[in-house]
Amino acid sequence: MALSTEQQNKMWALLNQTRGQIGLTAYKDYIFGLLFYKYLSEKAQHWLERVSRGESWESIYTQDPNKSLDYMQKNLGYGIQPNDFFSDWKEAIETDRFHIGMMSDTFAHFNQQIAFEAKQDFEGIFDGMHFDSADLGSNAQARAKMMMSMINLLSEPEFTFSNDQDNVSDIYEYLLEKFATVLASDMGQYYTPKEISTVMARILTVGKEEAESYSLYDPTVGSGSLLLTTASYMKNSNQRGAIKYFGQEKDSTPYRLARMNLMMHDIAYNDINVHHADTLESDWPDGIVEGKDNPRMFDAVMANPPYSAHWQNTEREDDPRWREYGIAPKTKADYAFLLHCLYHLKDDGRMAIILPHGVLFRGAAEGRIRKALIDKHQIEAVIGFPDKLFLNTGIPVCVLILRKNRADSDILFVDASKDFEKTKNQKKLRQEDIDKIVDTVIERKEIEKYSSLVSLEEIQENDYNLNIPRYVDTFEEEPEIDLTKVNNDLKQVDQEIAESTKVLQEYFKELGVEWE
Questions:
Q1: Beta strand pairing status for 345-356 and 298-303?
Q2: Interatomic CA distance for residues 489 and 483, integer angstroms
Q3: How many CA atoms, within 13 angstroms, populate the side-chain half-sphere of residue 96?
Q4: What is the pTM of this model?
Q5: What is the greatest pairwise CA distance in the chain?
Q6: Quick one: average pLDDT of 170-191?
Q7: Pairwise CA distance, residues 251 & 292, whole Å
Q8: Segment holding 273, helix H or strand E
């Protein structure tokens, strides 16, 4: 059950009441970290209730610490020692035993109790929290007070998980979106609006909804929202091992948030494979095996990369990701990301990528790459969206849908830029707008002033330019002007002015004032 508006408003109000003087940018690292640790703690406690047969964890641990922790690690991917649970911090606060060192000790213990197979998923995930930081306060007492306020906050009913997985993920997603909204310049680039994620997800999974196994890859994974939204349209998304989640992220904050987000959606650690690396500099790590190119391929690839980013494009000619198409300009890495995605796509897979409109018409190196993609019939659809959909930029974007081995050579163009709901500072796609886009792309419909199915020959005649207005005419003719009616209206206005003037003259005459 989704969070009510009242719940959401109260959660945000509570957060703002308890953060004191700490800035939101620093505050978010502690809130997300503590919320995630609360989730792991409660998950471990529920697991212990099922397997301990009434015996306390302290008793089991005391009998054989190593064996008991090993068993927890094997099942959960991590171990938590007695007295290190979130509830233990809360109890220490209530009995006046809490001190800041308890938290430092807890996370030191946690880092030592990560299963070998889960190292990549948990390692460094709490590094955003620094318990000796001046952000929390000028001394240990002030820092302890700040942490106590956060622990008490996350113990409020609004932040109760209630052993309900939907509630857990709803709380995390709400906070993620809210922080991304108020910290647009800091976090907006890592968060893809739900509406665009939904469009991409539904197109990527069409016909594959019941697949018994499926692999998803986002090379600029951000907060992980694209992976999660795509998976939500798979029938087996709740079955362990059915869907594998792959991602890569170069910035440390979203790298931590993405792993938290995935796990708080109850995805098993061994179904998550997220790397901390620069995608363009470091291709997926298992690409080269014994000196031979053996790239990992995925059923669906989705990405919302940084737009027109600078990258190191020298000495790239032999990189198999770009060898067949060409190298993107050093000041515009858009096609470098697109080709990276395409390279890792299975032959029967589909990919979707969000890019600025410039990729559709810019020339030189980008024009040559675009020509190669079109001649190989790999661009399936181009969708234009309204501006002001994103938190960190007001520019309109497009989504390109690609497949590797298309028999057809035509391209569907969709101009969805006119359909939206306007909010205070942003625009938002309505459900009917989303449905219309998805239905048009899947059915490859032609709709007047909205979509057009264009042949390869016509695109070639336009010098491989994919600018949407070239193919979708949205021009609305101005209604014809009835000059006779306009003339009569003007005569009527002149008559009304003359009558008003006559009345005014009479008033002036009565007042004894000369009319000029």
A1: parallel
A2: 10
A3: 0
A4: 0.87
A5: 113
A6: 78
A7: 29
A8: strand 272-276
**Which pLDDT tens digit goes with each residue over 37-59?**
999 999 999 999 999 888 999 99
The token pair at 255 is 């790298």
Which structure tokens are listed for 362?
């810019």
For residues 304 and 400, is the Cβ–Cβ distance under 8 A? no
**How far is the CA of 340 from the CAs of 119, 142, 196, 402, in angstroms?**
26, 48, 21, 12
> For the packed helices 24-51 and 165-182, what is the interaxial angle rounded to 10 degrees?
170
Per-residue tokens: 133: 């930081």
Q: Are 389 and 426 in contact (CB under 8 A)?
A: yes
Tokens 């919302």 belong to residue: 304
Give the tens place of pLDDT for each residue, 224-271: 999 999 999 999 888 889 999 999 999 999 999 999 999 999 999 999
Quote the CA–CA distance of 120 and 259 in Å, as a whole number: 10
E-only strand ranges, 212-271: 214-218, 243-249
User: Which tokens go with 268?
Assistant: 């098993």
Residues 456 and 229: their CA atoms lie apart, in Å, by 33
Backbone Cα Rg of the chain = 29
Amino acid at 50: R
Do residues 178 and 324 make contact, with C-beta atoms less than 8 angstroms apart?
no
342 three-class SS: helix
Output the CA angle 97-103-105, nearest 5 degrees.
100
Q: How far apart are CA 69 and CA 85, in angstroms?
A: 14
